[in-house]
From TrEMBL:
It comes from Oesophagostomum dentatum. Residues 1-20 form the GT23 domain. Residues 29-90 form the SH3 domain. Belongs to the glycosyltransferase 23 family. The keyword Transferase applies. The keyword Transferase applies. Keywords: Glycosyltransferase, SH3 domain, Transferase. The lineage of its organism: Eukaryota, Metazoa, Ecdysozoa, Nematoda, Chromadorea. This is Variant SH3 domain protein. It holds the Pfam family FUT8_N_cat. One of its GO terms (molecular function) is hexosyltransferase activity.
Length: 98
């Protein structure tokens, strides 16, 4: 609704839109992790290297196309392009209900 109201004043308010989405976290849960699906060669000193299959411990999303995390393979912490990693699902077997 807020976005629609902005359009009345601005015309195209798309440039003024900011996502409020954040990573879901429940106290005491396992760390949030992603898996790299593309290699990444750092282009700046604050970026980290990624190789396909690397597991990344997520520290946060910067909402500018980059996220911050720690590469579990190298131990390096820094920024990486968010689109180069996907959710690492933990699949757990549960006994059938009887």
């Amino acid at each position: 609704m807020g976005y629609e109201l902005m359009q009345v004043q601005e015309g195209d308010a798309g440039e003024r839109f900011h996502s409020l989405d954040d990573l879901y976290y429940y106290g005491g849960q396992h760390a949030h992790e992603l898996t790299a699906v593309e290699n990444h060669v750092p282009e700046a000193s604050e970026e980290i290297e990624l190789k396909v299959g690397d597991v990344i411990g997520v520290a946060g999303n910067h909402w500018d196309g980059y996220s911050k995390g720690v590469n579990r393979r190298t131990g390096a912490m820094g920024l990486y392009p968010s689109y180069k990693a996907v959710e690492k699902w933990r699949i757990v077997d549960f006994p059938p209900l009887s």
